[in-house]
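Ticket #4471: complex job returned nothing on first submit. Input attached below:
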Amino acid sequence: MISWARRLRERGIVGINQRNAEFIMPYNPRKHFPLVDDKLRTKKLAIENGIAVPELYSTVEIEHDVHTMLDTLKHYSSFVIKPNNGSGGNGVLVIGGRIGSHFSKASGVIVNGQQIQRHTSNILSGMYSLGGVPDTAIIEYRVESDPFFDSISYQGVPDIRVIVFRGMPVASMLRLPTRDSDGKANLHQGAIGVGVDIGTGVTRSGVRANDMTKVHPDTLQPIDGLQLPYWETIMTLAARCSELVGLNYIGVDIVIDRSKGPLVLELNARPGLNVQLATGRGLLFNLRAVEAMDNIPARAEDRVALAREKLG
Amino acid sequence: MRDLKLRVVAAVLFALGLGLCIYKVNVFGLPLQPGQDEEVWTVQARIAFKGSGKPTKVQFAIPHQTPGFVTLDEDFISGNYGLATEDDRENRWANWAVRRANGPQTLYYRISIARDQNSNELTGSTPPFPQAPFYPEPYNSAIKAILDDVRLESADIATYTRELLTQLNADTPNENVELLRGRVNNDEAWVYEISEVLKGARIPNRILYGLELNESINNAQLKPWLQVHNGQRWLSFNPLTGQAGLPENFLVWRIGEGPLVWVDGSGAAEVVFSAARNYREIVDIARKRAERLGSSLVDASLFNLPLETQNVYRILLMVPLGALLVVILRNVVGIRTFGTFMPVLIAMAFRETQLVWGIILFSVMIAVGLSIRFYLDRLMLLLVPRLASVLIIVVIMMIMISILTHQFGGTRAMSVALFPMVIMAMTIERMSIVWEELGAGDALKEGAGSLFTAILGYLLMTNATLSHLFFVFPELLLCMLAITLLFGRYTGYRLTELWRFRAALKFEPPESKS
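Support reply: We reran it on our side without changes. The output follows.
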C-alpha cells in the first residue's frame, strides 16, 4: 500500500484531498462558484466577452412554460436540454432530429413530446441540481461533431477537457464516447480518455476502464499520434475562460463543431482527476511549476505560448 | 512550517481536553471504566438517654478529619431537636437542643464514607511538651522505674513508645507494671493510663477514638488508639500491642480526651455504634468528593441535568465519534456513502433495533422501497410528490414488518417504529437516482459503503467504555475536534485512490527534475 502511494507520488499524481486543500481552496474563491455552476450566467458572460459557445435557444424556468416549450422549439430539428445547475453531465437530453411528431435521441432512441416535457419538468423540480434545489432548464444548439472525429468516436460528441491553472493550460485530454458510454463523454461511464500534449495538440495513448488502449474499441481506428485541429484556438479559449469567471483552477470542456469550430461547452470549478489517467502523468509537476512562476502574462495568447513551451 | 497555526490550535485543544480529563481522574477519582463499584460504609451512632422534662442540650462528638476516607453524606436524625454543628482544629460536635425532653430520647447521627487515597494524614499543629502528671507513691516510683528501664532500651520517641507499650502489655508483667494495671479495670482506662505514663516521660501524645471498618458491626463502642508526636508528625500505635500505624480501615471519630457525649438537663446518655458496608458506583462517589472539594467543574457537569436530558446526551455525545469515523472513512479510506452523515443517522437508528435486525430491516426496506420507487418512476411524478409517496410506502412497509414480526412472536416489533423513516425514504430516493444515472454498480457500491460505515459507526457509538468516557469526560470532545481539524488538512491519497490511479503506474515515472 505504502509503496503504491510512493510510486504515485513519484509520478506526481494529485489525490482528491490534495486537489481540494492545496489548489481549489486557496485558488478558487468560493464566491465565484455560483457563477460557474450557473451555466446560463457563464454562457451570457462568455458571449459578452466574445468567447464562442453553443447558441442559446430558450430557457424554461417555470412549470407552466413546459406546456408551451414544444411550440417554441418547432423551428429546431435538433437541440440539447440540460439543467442549469447540473453536474457531471447528469440530466442532459440530446435530441438529434425529428421523426414526424416524435424525436430521436442522439443514441437513436425515439421519444415523444410528452417524455421531453417530463424530462424538462424533472429538471425544474431540481432532480439533477446540487442539493435538489429548483432549477432552470436550458435549451441550446446541438453540437455536431467535427468530421475529424468520425473515425474515433461512437455517436455522441467528443470533448476536450483542459485543466487551467492561474490562466495557464496545464493538462488536457480528449474524451471519446464509446458504445459502452452510451454516447456520453464521461470516463467512468466507459468513455475513453486520451492524453493530449499541451505543446503540440498531438494525442497520446488512451485509457479505458483502467486499461491502456491505442485504438477506439468500436471503430478500431488508432487514437494515438493524431494532431487535433484548432489546437491554438482551443488553448486560448481555455485560458481566457479562467479570467472570465475569476477562478484560478478550473476545467474547461471544449467541443469542436462541424461548422462553428471550437466552442466552450462547460466550465468546472472542481475538475476531476481522471485527466491524470488519460495523460499518464500526474498534474503535480505542472501545477507546482505554474505556482512558482512570478509574472504570468496578462494576455491569454502569451500565456498559451508560455504554457506550450514550458509545460508541454 | 505548513499549517503551523492549525497544528498549534489542534495541540492546544487536545492538551486542554486531555488535561481536564486527567485532572478529573486524579483529583475526583472519576473512573475511566464504566460500571465500577466502590465500597461505601454507612456508620450510625445512636444516642439514647432518659428525658427529664426540662430543657435539654446534647453535645456529641462527630467525625471531623477522616484520614483515608471521604465523607459522602451526613444525616442528623433528631426529631424536634434543634441542631447546630461547631468545630475546632481537631474535633467537631453536633449540638442538639430541645425545650422539653420527656421520656426516652433517641438521636441518630449517620455518616456515609468511602475510601480515599488522597487524605491519609491527620493535620494539626505541633503540640507543646506536656507537664508530667503527679502520682502518689508507690505509683510514682513504679512509673519512674518503668520509664528508666524503657529509656535504656530505646533510641527515639518511636522506639521508646513501642518499648513502653510492649512492657506495659507484656503477658508476664513485672511488679511495677502489675501495680499500674491494678489501678484500672477496662481497656479505655488502661489506654488513658498509658497516655499519662507517656506524659510522665514528657512525650506529647493523644488518644484517637474510632472504629475499625472491616465487617459490619453492631452495638459497638469506639476503640482508643494512641498517637505520639515525634517533633515532626504524629505516630500511631496500637495501645494494647505496641504495633505501629493506624489500621487500614480505621475511621477516626474524635481526638483527645473529654466525653464523647455530654447531656445538659437530662440523665446520662448511652452511645452505640453500628456500621454497614454497601456498594455504590464510583461516579457517584467521585461527584460527592468533588462537591466536598468545592469544585465548580462538577457543578457544571452533565450529571446535574435532569435524567431524561442526560439520557439524550448519552446518545448525542457519541455523534461526534460517528462524524470522525465518517471523516476517516471518506477522506482517508475513500469509501463513498449516500449523504455525508446519513450513515451516522442510520447507525443511531440501529441503536433502537440492535445490529443484525437493523441490517436486515435496512436492506429489506431499501430493496423493496427501491423496486416500488422504480415503478413510481413510470408514473412520471414530480420530485416532491414522489418523495412523499416513497415516505408513505416506507411507513406502510414498517407497519407490515411490525405486524408480521409480532405474529411470529418477535419482540422487536416495538422498536421498529423508531427506525427513522425519513432517513429510509431519502436513502431510497438517493439510491434510485444514482442507480439511474451512474448504473446499478455505483448505486450498490454507495449503498454498501453507507451500510458498512453505519455498522462501524454503530459498533463505535454503542461501545460502553467510549459512551461512559464521553459522558463523564465531555471535554474529550475537544480532543475529537483537534483530531478532526488535523484531518481537515490531510492531503495524502485516499486508500481507494491507490486503486483508482493504478493505471497511471503503467506509465514510466518521469525523469527526476531536480
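Residues 139-214+222-254 of chain B form one domain. Closing as resolved unless it happens again.
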